[in-house]
Amino acid sequence: MRKIKVFLADDHPIVRKGLMSLLVEQTDIVVVGEAENGREALTKIEQLQPDVVVMDITMPLLNGLEATRQIKRRWPSIHVVMLTIHTTEEYIFQILQAGASGYVVKQAAPSELVMAIGAAYDGETFLSPSISQTVIREYIAHAQSASCENTADVLTEREYEICQLLVEGYSSREIADMLVISIKTVETHRGNLLRKLDIDNLADLTKYAIRKGITPLD
C-alpha cells in the first residue's frame, strides 16, 4: 500500500493538531513534519521531501502563496494543497497561478482534504465543490491572458519576501539577518519594490500587501 508523505504548514498550533488527528487515521497517509510559517516550511521541506504539502495562505514571515511558488520552482514534483478560509476570487486566482494542486476551504468536510491529498499525489487537481466552477474557469482564462497583471510578475522573489517582512514590522537589519544578506541589499530591494509599485510609504505598501494577499489583515 502506498504511503503519501504529507507536510503541514499552518501558523495555528490547534489547526495543525486537528489536521494531524484527522490524517493519522488514514492508512495511506503519514505526516512527516510541520511548520508554523512559510520560511520554516521551506527549510523543513528541503530536508524531508514530502509528497504533498498542506499549506495555509496567511502565515507570518513568508505567506503560503509565495512559499508555494518557491516549492514548485525548487521541487516541481512536490504537490501543494492549499487549505484556507479565503474564498474570494483574488485568492482563487493567485492560488492557481502559484501552482497549487488543490484548494480546500477550512469549512469543508474533512473528507475533502483527504481526497485533495490523494488527488494531488496522483497528479490531479482538486477544488472544493463549494467554489464556483464558473469563477474558476474565468480566472484560469484570465491567468493565461497576456494582459493579466500578477504581483509575482511585478516583483522578484526576493522583493516579494522583503515586502511581506516590511509590512510585518521587521527592520532592515532584522530582514538582513533573516535572509542572510546585507542591509544595503535590503534597502536596494526595498527601493526597487516601492518604485515598481509606485508606492512611497509603508502605509500604502501595507494596504497593497493586504489587497494582494501578501500578508493577512491581522
Describe the model:
The protein has 218 residues and is an alpha/beta fold. The protein is globular, with a radius of gyration of 17 Å. It starts with a strand and ends in a 7-residue tail after the last helix. The mean pLDDT is 84. The chain has a six-stranded parallel sheet with strand order 2-1-3-4-5-6, with helices on both faces. Helix 2 packs parallel to helix 3 (64-74), helix 4 (89-98) packs across helix 6 (133-143) and helix 8 packs across helix 11 (202-211). It has helices at residues 13-23, 38-48, 64-74, 89-98, 110-121, 133-143, 151-154, 157-167, 172-179, 183-197, 202-211, and strands at residues 4-9, 29-35, 52-55, 79-84, 102-105, 126-127. The longest helix has 15 residues, at 183-197. The protein folds into two domains: 4-143, Rossmann fold (3-Layer(aba) Sandwich); 151-211, Orthogonal Bundle (Arc Repressor Mutant, subunit A), CATH 1.10.10.
Strand order of the largest sheet: 2-1-3-4-5-6
Sheet with most strands: 6 strands, parallel
Query: Count of DSSP helices?
Result: 11
How confident overall, as mean pLDDT?
84
Record field, number of beta strands = 6
- Please give the CATH architecture of the largest domain: 3-Layer(aba) Sandwich
**C-alpha-based Rg, rounded:** 17 Å
CATH topology of the largest domain: Rossmann fold
Question: How many structurally independent domains?
Answer: 2
Uncertain regions spanning at least 5 consecutive residues:
none
Tell me the series of helices and strands, N- to C-terminal.
Answer: EHEHEHEHEHEHHHHHH
Helix and strand composition category:
alpha/beta
First-residue to last-residue Cα separation: 42 Å
- Helix coverage percent of residues? 40-55%
Shape category: globular
Task: Find the CATH superfamily of the largest domain.
Answer: Response regulator
Portion in beta strands: 5-15%
The CATH class name of the largest domain reads Alpha Beta
